[in-house]
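To assess whether ligand presence alters the predicted conformation, the chain was also submitted together with zinc ion. Input:
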Amino acid sequence: MPAASQPLSGAASTDARRPVGDPVATTAAEKAAAKAWKVDLRELGRRAGSMREWEKTLAALPGWGVEMIGVPEGAPVDLHLRLESVMEGVLVSGTIDVPVTGQCARCLEPVEDTFSLDVQELYAYEGSTTEATSGEDEVRRIDGELLDLAPLVRDTVVLTLPLSPTCTPDCAGLCVDCGERLDDLPADHSHEVIDPRFAGLAARFADLNDDADGAQPGSGSTDTEEN
Ligand SMILES: [Zn+2]
Ligand SMILES: [Zn+2]
């Protein structure tokens, strides 16, 4: 059996949560939304050291999420970024504030939050040494004069999202018997055990029934041995 027949499985995909490709914008509105994330670099210039602040609120594009939580399409994402021209490309750094909504993995209640995330990423110029010596999945690329911030923000958010979001850190989940939220129920909520305050009374009723019906076997037989 030839040893080389086995493909290099797993070697290429370092993170399974990284989305595969960008969703393709088809309608004019989708194209306009995607275009808003592309920074025109012509005014930044290529002189190393030139810098530009990028303060903007942009609408989130579709598909920024994992199974139970994500950024709603069109939700406002606040960008506080700095674009800096360096030798090999443009360094993007700063913070992004992004609203996320989802469902508690334990009790299914809606979950709402805003993530404030730090980003720092080099986008390589076309024709730069960095571009020539790195894979497209390793270093982001500048496409002509356009730097697309959307994939950076999407990847940063998606990699931060919890796979099992919870409404509170210690959410107790749902009662397996009635399906109600345990956090909404009294601490002694239960279905199997008779309330301890009435357990003695229940046993006494069982005794009385036994006496009245003679040899009829009672349900509370454990307390009837000494009568
Ligand atoms: Zn919950
Ligand atoms: Zn219950």
